[in-house]
Specification:
three-stranded antiparallel beta sheet
Length: 258
């Protein structure tokens, strides 16, 4: 007879890690460390990916780096013995990456749907590492670069970065979820359900559940949460550039006037 307790799946339990104190190392200069962390990466380590497509077919491309580049930068600046990375599984289905450098800890999140899936865990951990590293200045300059829009039929300018790898398609288990999307919106300053729906151009009536509306009108329209993240990124980018409202930004994106 099978042991029911033994066969019962183990659920990941959230853990609370203590905040580390900065190390008192001889010659430790955080100003110098931040300057080295913030240095641009070589062109062959910076890639480009499509983030959004407007109604007219224009495509928005952004730059990104791989997690291996982040680890190499950490090793080069502070040494492999002076940094560590841990992950924490949250009950909401979000995984938190915790990066400690010379005793200073910063964190950010990634999404996960299958905690027992090795590939999923690795993919989410890599994404969380890159996001946490930005808080230390690593790769932050990429967010400040002017985003490149291409018109239909126009070739992408890749002089500053080679094309990203296209030979790997991540499994569903490591793609963004609704929870990840909501957290991402909050980080962009979209705090209310109405603001989040407005950013996607999805109407939300009084008394309606945002989750139900998005599942019906966004996911039901064969769009993904990754598409939703790309869309709100493009919208907030337009708002900063044009100083317009959420509604006006959606109109500009749909008409391809940006």
């Amino acid at each position: 007879m099978a042991n029911k307790e033994k066969d019962k799946p183990v659920k990941a339990v959230p853990q609370s890690l203590p905040r580390a104190e900065p190390l008192d190392l001889p010659g430790l200069d955080w100003s110098s460390i931040h300057e080295e962390f913030s240095a641009p990466f070589p062109d062959d380590e910076v890639h480009k990916k499509k983030q959004a497509t407007s109604g007219s077919g224009s495509e928005l491309f952004v730059s990104y780096i791989e997690s291996r580049s982040v680890m190499n930068r950490l090793d080069e600046v502070v040494g492999p013995e002076n940094w560590e990375f841990d992950v924490e599984y949250l009950t909401s289905g979000v995984i938190k990456g915790i990066l400690t450098v010379c005793g200073v800890t910063k964190s950010d999140i990634g999404s996960i749907e299958s905690p027992d899936h090795t590939t999923a865990v690795k993919g989410c951990a890599s994404d969380a590492l890159k996001r946490a590293a930005v808080h230390f200045g690593i790769g932050r300059y990429l967010y400040d670069q002017e985003r490149q829009w291409t018109q239909p039929g126009q070739a992408l300018d890749r002089r500053q970065a080679p094309a990203p790898r296209r030979d790997y398609e991540p499994p569903e288990s490591i793609r963004p979820t609704e929870n990840t999307f909501i957290v991402h919106c909050q980080q962009l300053g979209l705090k209310t359900q109405k603001e989040i729906c407005s950013a996607l151009g999805v109407p939300l009536s009084k008394g309606e559940s945002m989750s139900v509306v998005l599942q019906k009108q966004w996911i039901g329209a064969k769009k993904s949460w990754e598409d939703a993240i790309d869309h709100v990124d493009a919208i907030t980018d337009i708002i900063k550039k044009e100083e317009c409202t959420l509604t006006e930004a959606n109109v500009q994106l749909a008409m391809g006037t940006v």
